[in-house]
Specification:
The structure is a single chain. With about 375 residues, this protein is of the alpha/beta class. The protein folds into 2 domains: about 220 residues, Isopropylmalate Dehydrogenase (3-Layer(aba) Sandwich), CATH 3.40.718; about 130 residues, 3-Layer(aba) Sandwich (Isopropylmalate Dehydrogenase), CATH 3.40.718. The chain is about 40% helix and about 20% strand. The strands form 2 sheets. Strands 2-1-3-12-11-4-5-10-8-9 form a 10-stranded mixed β-sheet, with helices on both faces. Strands 6-7 form a two-stranded antiparallel ribbon. The protein is globular and about 65 Å long. The structure holds nicotinamide-adenine-dinucleotide (NAD), 3-isopropylmalic acid and manganese (II) ion (MN). The site of nicotinamide-adenine-dinucleotide has 22 residues, from α4.
């Protein structure tokens, strides 16, 4: 039986609660005999600051490099508001993404049939929605230099963030988007702001060129990022694969999350380039954050985290059937009416994080029986 080594980084806030849901589901998956899953757990974010004085210890980074895949809960929270910028909790996650070269962040926004009425939008706008946001994750304004606040001669301050993209960075994310589109509906929309930003001009130029040279069979549309945000709310089903930069991808994926009913529904896969053995470095993380407002209250929806495990089975381990089994178990659980508060009508009859994870684990066992 194949054996996989998973590094679990629960992090802060609701991170440990939703990661406990992963362990509940892993126990059920192990029983099916699909594969052997070994887990190790380590600290990241605020939890690592409390222990090591920094949000990602070097040993943790080494463990991450050695693991077959990494699952991360969430980082950050008000407790660490006062720590120095360079060692804030979020810097730990950004270092993991950058040092592991996880440049492609896939954020699928799927409206489960049972949740069509949980969206902030009308049922007919979101029913059947299935968008794949492809967010560039290791470039752009997140990492461009200079990035600083300086004091001017008159004592006032000046803050600078730098948006940088190179041809190579845009080419590789464009390939990811077009390759995915070929396995889906064959349509890509590329969002940037070439009307304002030089990086947007280059983005559009490179995406156009990659398309013309390699993907004439895929339909490509360019859309300005602000219009894209509006179109996502106006008529979301016009999109299939949506490729965009790091910052626009961050914002547009939170918008897309609400189409599905809740930020607690969106999983993601952060992927590196395929290595020699075909195995690529990868980290799986929900799109949501540490949700300090509900942390510790057994209220968080674990589906984004558990869905991230399903993506791990599919993208890192090639266990497509197991991933389908787990996605199916989530569908069954929602169809049976099980809801955490964020997706329940008026919060009525909601179950907690633990009960939702147990219901999904039970659905895994039922499907596997
Ligand atoms: P957030 O995503 O943590 O929460 C936004 C809102 O969505 C809150 O009302 C929260 O209760 C709700 N929510 C989020 N996840 C949920 C879930 N699984 N179930 C039910 N409701 C859920 O965003 P924020 O409040 O802006 O940020 C809080 C902290 O999290 C900040 O420190 C931020 O930097 C960090 N953050 C981390 C990540 C990450 O680790 N990947 C992502 C986003 C934000
Ligand atoms: C996300 C988060 C992160 C980001 C933060 C916590 C660094 O918002 O994964 O969407 O901005 O990328
Ligand atoms: Mn975000």
């Amino acid at each position: 039986m194949a054996s996989y080594n998973l590094l679990l980084l629960p992090g802060d806030g609701i991170g440990p609660e939703v990661m406990a849901g992963v362990e509940t589901v892993l126990a059920a998956l192990r029983e099916t005999g699909i594969a052997r899953f070994e887990t190790e757990t380590d600290l990241v974010g605020g939890a690592a600051i409390d222990r090591h004085g920094k949000p990602l210890a070097d040993e943790t980074l080494e463990r991450a490099k050695a693991a077959d895949a990494i699952l991360l809960g969430a980082v950050g929270g008000p407790k660490w508001n006062g720590v120095a910028y360079d060692i804030r909790p979020e810097a730990g996650l950004l270092r993991l993404r950058k040092d592991l070269a996880l440049f492609a962040n896939l954020r699928p926004a799927i409206c489960y049939p049972a949740l069509a009425d949980a969206s902030a939008l009308k049922r007919e706008l979101v029913e059947g929605l299935d968008i794949m946001i492809v967010r560039e994750l290791t470039g752009g304004v997140y990492f461009g230099e200079p990035k600083e606040i300086t004091v001017q001669a008159d004592g006032s301050k000046r803050a600078v963030d730098t948006q940088v993209y190179t041809t190579g960075e845009i080419e590789r994310i464009a390939h990811v988007a077009f390759d995915l589109a070929r396995k889906r509906s064959g349509r890509v929309a590329s969002a940037e702001k070439n009307n304002v930003m030089k990086s947007g001009v280059l983005w559009k130029e490179v995406v156009t060129q990659v398309h013309a040279e390699h993907y004439a069979d895929v339909a490509l549309e360019h859309v300005l990022a602000d219009n894209c945000a509006m179109q996502l709310v106006r008529r979301p089903k016009q999109f299939d694969v949506l490729v965009t930069d790091n910052l626009f991808g961050d914002v547009l994926s939170d918008v897309a999350a609400m189409l599905t009913g809740s930020l607690g529904m969106l999983p993601s896969a952060s992927l590196g380039a395929a290595g020699d053995g075909g195995m690529r470095r990868a980290l799986y993380e929900p799109v949501h954050g540490s949700a300090p407002d509900i942390a510790g209250a057994d209220k968080a929806n674990p589906i984004a985290m558990i869905g991230s495990l399903a993506m791990c089975l599919r993208y890192s381990f090639g266990l497509g059937e197991a991933a389908d089994l787990l996605d199916g178990a989530i569908t069954d659980t929602l169809a049976a009416g099980t809801r955490t508060a964020d997706i329940a009508a008026d919060g009525a009859g909601a179950v907690g994080t633990k009960a939702m994870a147990e219901a999904i684990a039970a659905a895994v066992r039922a499907r596997a029986a």
